[in-house]
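Hi, here's the filled form for the chain we discussed.

Project: internal
Contact: R.S.
Residues: 302
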Amino acid sequence: MATSTPTSPATTSSRTISKLGIAAVVVTVVLWASAFVGIRAVGPSFSPGSLTLGRLAVAAVALGIVALPRLKRWPKGREWWPILSYGVMWFAGYNLALNAAEHMLDAGTSAMLINVSPILIAVLAGVILKEGFPRWLIIGSLVAFGGVALIALGSGQHSTADVAGVLLCLLAAVLAAVSVIVQKPVLRTFSAAQATWFGIMVGAVCCLPWAGQLVAEVQAAPLPATLGLVYLGIFPTAIAFTTWAYALSLIEAGKLAATTYLVPGTTILISWALLKEIPTIWGLVGGVICLVGVGLTRRRSR
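And the returned structure, exactly as it came back:
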């Protein structure tokens, strides 16, 4: 891209990357926010395991059409280890945990709890990827975890099932955070679409035990629920995970993770508009505290 501009290649390349990176981040935030609402909407028709397998199967086909024709070589030897890791943790484990959690929690609260993941990514990126470990990162993390505790306390006032949902969301957040760190080096060798497709295929294989259940539930599900599953597979999975991987190949993991702080607010708006769901006051207050905490992590120490 830079070679097409004769005047200032470095400047043009930097600007191009910035614009593409911002576009990728916006697409990721909006589509991931819609995923929380979509999972909640189709939840009555699909169990967590079958929903995960169906979503990944649709994504594998849709993204495979784009990624496979440009695939020059397959991973070899040790190159498979990180792919297997984030495929199992992110595409299988994360989705299973989140799908199960949203049978117990509303979409907005789930998105707020998953918002712990950016903090964990920033910490892991600072230690493992050497992106820095500033003082404000620690302070902001403590504040944000206080917000999570408040959400959990408010949920616990309703039923023990809500507490289980909170724990499942936190598990999903941890799996996602570790997966981002593991995926980052893979993007030096493979394109965003290819790295995402590999992970989707690994996750789909892990979920094959739910194949029979998926077939039965698709046959019994109403058409809108089935279309919702297809939407989850194409947009929040095939497209959004690819745009995320593309942005991750351009931006430091810790800085990129900060952009997902916009997901909970976007989710609440979509959930309110489509599902008429509003989190409890505890969830809202805890979510605000989470956002304050993650905002503090972005402060720079002098």
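Let me know if anything looks off before we file it.
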